[in-house]
Amino acid sequence: MNIVVCLKQVPDTASKIVVKDGRVLEEGLTWVVNPYDEYAVEEALRIKEKLGGKVTLVTVGPERAKQALKDALALGADEGIHVTDPAFEGVGPYGVATILAAALQKIPYDMIWAGWKGVDLDQGQTAIILAEKLGLPHVSFVTKIDIAPDGKSATVQREVEGGKEVVQTQLPAVFTAQKGLNEPRYASLKGIMAVKKKVIPEWKAADLGLNPDGLGSRKVELVEVVPPPERAAGRVIPGAPEEAAKELVRLLHEEAKVF
Amino acid sequence: MSNNVLVIAEQRGGTLKKVTFELLTAAQQVAGKWGGQVDAVVLGAGVRALAELLAQAGAAKVYVADDPALARYSPDGYAGVLANLVRRVEPAVVLVSATFWGKDLAPRVAAKVKAGLASDATGIEGQDGGRLLVTRPIYAGKAIAKVRINTTPQMVSLRPNSYPPAALEAGRAANVEAVVLDGYQPQAVVTDFVKAGGEKLDVAEANIIVSGGRGMGGSEQYAILEELASVLGAAVGASRAAVDAGWRPHSDQVGQTGKTVSPNLYIACGISGAIQHLAGMKTSKVIVAINKDPDAPIFKVADYGIVGDLFKVVPLFTEEVKKLKAAE
Ligand SMILES: Cc1cc2nc3c(=O)[nH]c(=O)nc-3n(C[C@H](O)[C@H](O)[C@H](O)COP(=O)(O)OP(=O)(O)OC[C@H]3O[C@@H](n4cnc5c(N)ncnc54)[C@H](O)[C@@H]3O)c2cc1C
Ligand SMILES: Nc1ncnc2c1ncn2[C@@H]1O[C@H](COP(=O)(O)O)[C@@H](O)[C@H]1O
Question: pTM (2 decimals)?
Fold first, then answer.
């Protein structure tokens, strides 16, 4: 199995997000591999360990994104490709999918893994647009996958409200990982050392035959970012548990009117 | 191009989801402002009867793709049918639900018709000049983005509970147009549904959520939350600490790597209020915290709080709610 994993570098979920002049400040953010992509990497490694093959990581992003490749290479992936070009800044999901689709013309694949969303802009679009661009089926929110012995199809479980859907798909296909798919491993010392010897190729727009103007960057345009509305300070209901519980029910019923 | 708004109706097992009626409310506001009309499309097998309901909820025209081949959902298959329709009727805006279904389908439709998609939005506003201003939380609600979509159509997936559901007006007959499938060849197809234990209400769809964290101490102790939830008609949620401890399934997790929820009432029991948890529930209309630590960060976002032992407070609270319900 040749497995490609699409990796996105995102701010750590513990990061404080500071909004200034209608934009999110990048200074002070710590960057990590998107948590959902960690599940994707883990699944790719497990499939490789079972069926043999190769795991290739691809990220589209600026210089700092190389670290995301290194972090995931340390887990045991075979190769990492850094697709980077000033023209790729802020192109949006459609643009990134277009770039990834071009990169994938140069990488053999039997399956493509991604996260269901990046925990930065919470879009959840890139992988599915990529599937459409490559003419492949996709299955999103994957929590379990069984690959047929002939490697030509898979039976997949995806999360939905109130249960799981079972999906049948041919391969190659694009899969997006949901939490619960697996428990990602930690990097071993050996893995971390091995990364030092890896060469991470850089692919630019010209290497992919991409016209930077055609990347769909303006399909959705950011007008401004504002801080979330502050929640007014609430009140702590005093008294013994009996009185407090009673008063809480009264307030929820009469003041907040939620039941 | 028209000024019309097309709502993609979501149904499961022949029943329209509540979010569909919320989409119709949002659609009505935009179409009203632009002098367009609200249309709806529904796909499935044996879904013809739903057209009446959609019409009563305000859809001027209802496109019905009713075919045995559509009995089983396929993202690429359904997206193909929808893309053909969108190309033909040229709506100004296409609205879809930001549920597991809509999140799976919308990017595929958008890619096919090369439309910009603003996903998981909480508000849309029709502006002069025919463009939407879309509000969508980013960084799990730690910031709010306002975006404009520069394509035709403009596509938006809308988070459940963002708008009130459209009221039904009896007697409004549907203007139905059948959508004929043309060379339908789905690739990925849903073949089965495995229900989570019992008749479980999903946290993403619930109006009230009773959520428990590490303070619950174990899976059995959730019985007190289950009881409160059944009295309130609520869903039971959990923090990641509780999920990672194996007390609750992943599907119950609220937060940045769980579900983002906006119920009318969120009751957090034994949850400290870590930033990743707050990210998933901060937009709830009313938040209640029950925690023995007065300095727990959850109290900073709670409208009402009780500092105390949840094992004392929750059963008392449940009893008081029962009394209230009995009195009504
Ligand atoms: C990448 C990443 C993603 C994450 N995503 C999520 C996410 O999606 N959702 C999420 O929830 N977390 C997430 N987390 C974890 C988050 O950082 C916290 O660790 C977690 O939310 C803590 O859960 P908790 O509040 O239940 O536990 P704790 O922080 O341990 O809090 C337990 C609380 O219970 C109270 N308590 C204990 N006993 C009682 C009692 N008898 N009565 C009343 N109160 C009591 C304590 O005072 C305490 O405040 C994420 C972390 C990372 C790094
Ligand atoms: N710049 C990128 N480079 C590589 N993969 C990406 C990139 N952006 C998004 N992806 C993949 O697409 C998924 C969904 O991202 P998004 O659409 O940004 O929410 C991520 O989890 C990644 O797997």
Answer: 0.92
